Amino acid sequence: MNSSFLLSSTTFIYALASVFYIGSFAFKKNIFSKIGFIVLVAGFTDNTAGIIMRWVESYQMGYGHAPFSNMYESLVFFSWTVAILYIFVELKYKESIIGVFASPLIFLAIAYASFDPNTSSRISPLLPALKSNWLIAHVITCFLGYAGFAVAFGFSIMYFVRPCDNQSESIFAKLPSLDLIDELTYQMVVFGFLFLTIGIITGAVWANSAWGKYWTWDPKETWSLITWLIYAIFMHLRIMRGWSGKSLAYISVIGFLAVLFTYFGVNYFLSGLHSYA
Amino acid sequence: MKKNQTIPEKIWQFFCSARLAVCTLVLLALTSIIGTVILQNGTRDEYIKFYGHGWYNLIRAFDFDDMYHAWWFLSLIAVLCINIVVCSIERLSITWKIIFPKKITFNPDRFRKLKNFEILSVEKTLSQLTLESEKLLSKTIGPVIKEDTGKTILLYAEKGRWTRLGVYVVHASLLLLLLGALIGSLFGFKANLNLDEGKTSDTAVLIETKKPVKLGFSIRCNDFNVKFYDTGVPEEFRSNLTIIEDGKETLTKDILVNHPLRYKGINIFQSSYGSAQPDGVSLEIIDQQDKTTEIRKIKIGEEFQLPDGETLFKLEGFLPHFDFSGNDLGQAFIGRISEKDGKHFQIGLPLKFPTFDKMRKGSFAFVIKGADQKQYTGLHITKDPGIWYVYTGFMLMIIGCWITFFMAHESYFIEIEPTGELSSTLSISGTANRNSHGLKFKIKKMFHTIKG
Ligand code: HEM
To answer: Fewest CB atoms within 10 A around its CB: which of B194, B252, B397, B400?
Structure first.
């Protein structure tokens, strides 16, 4: 049993969970979403074991670092954070139907990690600059933030598919009330915003201890700031200008696009200090 | 907007609008993109090569080549700050009375109209039920205000009034952070210092202006080491440094990447390394006639007599790039041979080709046996008196966000009405300034506790 086996099996379990959720939605059978939830929790357990195993293996290989150091590892961790966040939301709000929008995200992230030829799953040693507890805190908090925004994005999508009148025959009429979606989206944005804030801050503290500069305006930093600003705009529009519903959902979608660009786009299109990831 | 406003009032009004806040934030987000797409702080030639002359003029006109320090970008940040200050003053002057009232009062009618109302009939006397509810409220919420209307008993308790200040903490932290950045850029510096092993220096070179800057003490590099992984990737850079102040050694410490040395407000970071110029070499001297050899050690600037007792050899210096008939032979020592008849000439001894001098076919050949190859450590030296403002801003921002997002000003209201000798009805409701969904849960929970 090694970490790559655990993590590739996780990919398939998450795929299965998505299939159950989508099935429950399409065929209007609650039992499917119940099974989906159990499968998702199983996948999450597998995912957790895989991350811990990888950590152990890195020590056995003599490199000894936490498994958050490259694109592959961060994507695996991203799946993990979205999964735990979603499991929490489903347990708290008892609305399994929104899993239709969250579970595919969980699956896609880890599938991308496993199948993209550009991301290597090899455990490799750390460069000196990356050896820092601040870095571990930085990666974990940033990804919790991204996970919050991802789930918020999943919820926002519901605005665009849900019909307004509850009597409608469409399968989307079963979605939770718009009030609840609004509340949930906001809660997820708030969660994401808090953790992105901590993520940017721990990143700055790390940069200051490694290079003596807490902010250098390198593209990755700047894009995370842009993302942060977009969600600050989201909150001000809601609190101060009374926006809600679809118009606010557009901001959440734009915000998530910025997250994706910060995460992938910067590495592929722009260069900077962070290009190791 | 009201009529008959004076100009200062208009300006004040302009800066306290929410629309301005959103517009500024949008502009900041949009313009920040520019600097991630256009090369920053490049040279003139690079811009002309990438973008051509026309674009280069445009880039220069708007300072897009250093846009995060351009006047218009800094002005946007200034507008944001003024906006926050004006808006906070305006709102605080109103909400201060809400946050710290002289006496806490409540309006029963408001609570009776709420949607999250729960009603319960129980077989308990009025006084018993009142006592239980009061206990529950004071235990889970806070001090209870009790009123007797004659017909009913009213109980009110609240908590977290002060959490309304959270938003102001968030905004203040932003100002503090920017203030710290400003102090850092005005009174701090960033410099580099390349220090050979064994050497001491008290001056670094400023990164931006390339001017020297005195540190107020000296740094000696005792030793520098790089460790590699099996794969050839560097694992660790380590410099052993000694601080010397007024001629006394005051501190000796290893620094690594991520583990800088901080001394008297100055931070010393491990940033790079390289080979330093060696200061001596050991040479094998071969007498080309009888093939006898002798090994001598010599430092740069020293000289010695060759075994024939007449010829002098002086090690004159070291060149990083030794040019031999148009070829770069790399690092090399330069020596000078002075013969007895006054004739003298220079020879080059490249490190990469230790036996190079044999080709000269002179009466003596010099073969390099080992240079005292040293390394230099590249130090990044900074002073940033603003850093504690920035770090305090960081802390306050996290604390402020936490208060704002996860804590709320909650008020609970219970009304108890006797319906018989031994029975009463109890109604419970509440308000919160945020997360009303969570409040509903809490009211339900309280309701179930009273129900027993
Ligand atoms: C990057 C800059 C800013 C950040 C990160 C920020 C952050 C926040 C946060 C987290 C909230 C709470 C939102 C919520 O309760 O959901 C908030 C509310 C608010 N912000 Fe900002 N803000 C920024 C800039 C500004 C500016 C420039 C103004 C200028 C007027 C402003 C005025 C307000 C006001 C009036 C509120 C509502 C307070 C209330 O709940 O009564 N903010 N801000």
So the answer is: B252
